Amino acid sequence: METSPPAGGAANRPAAPLATPRDLPAVDRLLREPGAAALVAEHGHTLVTHEARALAEGLRERCLRGELPWADVQPQALTAALARRVGDRLAPRMRPVMNLTGTVIHTNFGRALLADSALQQVLALAGGPNNLEYDLGTGGRGDRDSLVEELLCAITGAEAATVVNNNAGAVLLTIAALAHRDPARREVIVSRGELVEIGGAFRMPDVMTCAGAAMVEVGTTNRTHPRDYADAINERTALLMKVHTSNYVVKGFAASVDEPTLAGLAHERGLPLASDLGSGALVDLAAWGLPHEPTPQEMIKAGCDVVTFSGDKLLGGPQAGLIVGTREAVACVRKYPMKRALRMGKLPLAALEATLRLYLRPERLARDLPTLRLLTRPQADIAAMAERLAPAVSAALAPRFSVKPAAMMSQIGSGALPVDRLPSAGLVIAPAGASKKGIGTAIDELARTLRGLPCPVIGRVADDAIWLDLRVLEHAEPFVAQLPLLRERAIGP
Question: Pick from 341, 370, 340: which is nearest to 354 by CA?
Answer without folding.
Answer: 370
